[in-house]
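R.M. (postdoc): so does anyone remember the format we settled on? I'll just put the structure tokens first.
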């Protein structure tokens, strides 16, 4: 009789989520034991005792589903977790700022009751993209001078234009324009190096975006500091103001080895370590930088910075084009993250970074658009993924170099590791911050789809991003940024364009 009853109810058990059955079992008081004898003293068999337990589990009132703020569903969830799971007809549950569950839609709909839900059956849910190197306010210099070598671009156009135009308000307007573009193209975290970073931080935070912002320290007078000492004081105040912020990670950003004294570089490292902050620096971007450093110091820029102790702490180095094997060994040993900028390096003909070697060595390599003026004229991380994969292939002669999965990793979880934020962002996993994007697959360039990872790198575009969440908050809904007024951003950009044009050499 007992066996027949178990056979009848066993299929019903599969209708309940495992967590529900487990939760029901916990309703039994800890001191309660299933009876071993009936009222007449007869001994219960093990199967009879199991029958009693199963009856309780199946007849106890159903536990209410757990409330959550959001339940996001889509055709696929690309998690970029350690197993690189791709969940068909998947869902993500969000409570507050964090992801609480990821899995098949049917499972999560049983387990959670959302306050709000978003269903895109023709889309992919992916981790928000992570930009590991840019200069956000330079969006207002977009296209000011193109097709030049880096030093000519800097010395003849950018430095003079900055001297005449950059102010705190300029940086605010440029940051708003950059954040607007980045959010619409699926970037949820960006890494900046510029001036007046406290103003940039305020605008970024107001828009709800996440950022690692490096206050620039450089060896000549600039808009926000006349001396490196002034820049260090400003940087310390910036670190104090935003220390522990949920969205803004303040950083120390000595521009480069060749634009700072040894004393300033050491002071930057000391300051960063005192505040447990990252240090961001340009490294070996051009052949000229490399050759001049070797001629002057008898060692490479990487070796020179290592000798000065600049890598003695959390560090992100941008570009890393001209690195030899000895340099790579230092960077690996010091756990220095690299921001690979394929568009910029191609546009300025700086060279090709040894990305395949870096990845093979386990160096954390993220992606960045650099720019957005001269070195690259946009913030398009989809473009950077595509170019990172293809540049590696053509430069090595190996079509298997930097496959789509590796390029996607560089734009997400590897970028997070390069920034030291891998426990918070970079993949869709329970406990991490809810930084996610929807990428639509309803246009002809997305048909058909055999691999979601391949599509994200080689087929889909920044303009396919429809919705963006940062820290559990929806910032973009159906390609409309909810936290910025695009008309006002455009008007400010037009105004600054007129001002800049009036200051350019005729």
């Amino acid at each position: 009789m007992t066996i027949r009853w178990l056979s009848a109810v066993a299929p019903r058990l599969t209708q309940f989520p495992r967590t529900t059955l487990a939760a029901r079992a916990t309703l039994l008081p800890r001191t309660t034991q299933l009876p071993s004898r009936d009222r007449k003293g007869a001994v219960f068999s093990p199967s009879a005792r199991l029958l009693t337990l199963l009856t309780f589990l199946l007849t106890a009132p159903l536990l209410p589903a757990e409330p959550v703020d959001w339940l996001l569903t889509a055709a696929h969830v690309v998690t970029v977790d350690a197993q690189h799971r791709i969940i068909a007809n998947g869902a993500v549950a969000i409570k507050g700022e964090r992801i609480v569950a990821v899995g098949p839609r049917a499972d999560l709909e049983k387990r959670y009751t959302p306050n709000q839900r978003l269903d895109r059956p023709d889309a992919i849910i992916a981790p928000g993209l992570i930009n590991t190197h840019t200069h956000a306010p330079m969006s207002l210099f977009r296209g000011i001078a193109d097709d030049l070598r880096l030093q000519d671009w800097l010395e003849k156009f950018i430095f003079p234009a900055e001297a005449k135009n950059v102010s705190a308000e300029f940086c605010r307007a440029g940051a708003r324009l950059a954040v607007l573009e980045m959010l619409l193209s699926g970037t949820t975290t960006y890494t900046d190096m510029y001036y007046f970073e406290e103003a940039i931080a305020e605008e970024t935070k107001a828009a709800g975006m996440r950022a690692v912002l490096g206050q620039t320290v450089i060896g000549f007078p600039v808009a926000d500091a006349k001396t490196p000492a002034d820049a260090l004081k400003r940087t310390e105040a910036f670190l104090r103001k935003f220390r522990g912020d949920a969205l803004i990670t303040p950083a120390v950003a000595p521009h480069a080895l060749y634009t700072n004294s040894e004393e300033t570089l050491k002071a930057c490292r000391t300051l960063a370590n005192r505040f447990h902050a990252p240090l961001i620096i340009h490294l070996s971007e051009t052949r000229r930088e490399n050759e001049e450093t070797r001629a002057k110091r008898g060692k490479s820029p990487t070796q020179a910075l290592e000798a000065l102790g600049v890598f003695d702490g959390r560090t992100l180095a941008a570009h890393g084009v001209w690195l030899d094997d000895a340099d790579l060994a230092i960077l690996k040993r010091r756990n220095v993250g690299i921001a690979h900028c394929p568009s910029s390096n191609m546009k300025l003909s700086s060279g090709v970074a040894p990305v395949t070697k870096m990845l093979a060595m386990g160096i954390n390599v993220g992606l960045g658009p650099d720019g957005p003026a001269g070195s690259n004229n946009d913030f398009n991380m989809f473009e950077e993924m595509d170019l990172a994969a293809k540049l590696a292939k053509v430069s090595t002669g190996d079509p298997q170099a930097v496959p789509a999965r590796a390029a996607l990793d560089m734009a997400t979880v590897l970028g997070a590791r390069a920034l030291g934020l891998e426990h918070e962002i970079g993949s869709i996993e329970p406990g991490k911050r809810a930084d996610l994007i929807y990428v639509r697959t309803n246009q002809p360039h997305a048909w058909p789809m055999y691999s979601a990872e391949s599509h994200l790198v080689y087929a889909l575009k920044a303009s396919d991003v429809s919705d963006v969440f940062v820290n559990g908050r929806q910032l973009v809904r159906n390609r409309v940024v909810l936290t910025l007024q695009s008309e006002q951003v455009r008007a400010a950009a037009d105004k600054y364009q007129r001002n800049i044009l009036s200051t350019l050499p005729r």
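R.M.: ...and that's the designed sequence above, right after the tokens. Also worth knowing: The longest helix spans residues 486-503. DSSP finds 19 helices and 16 strands in the chain.
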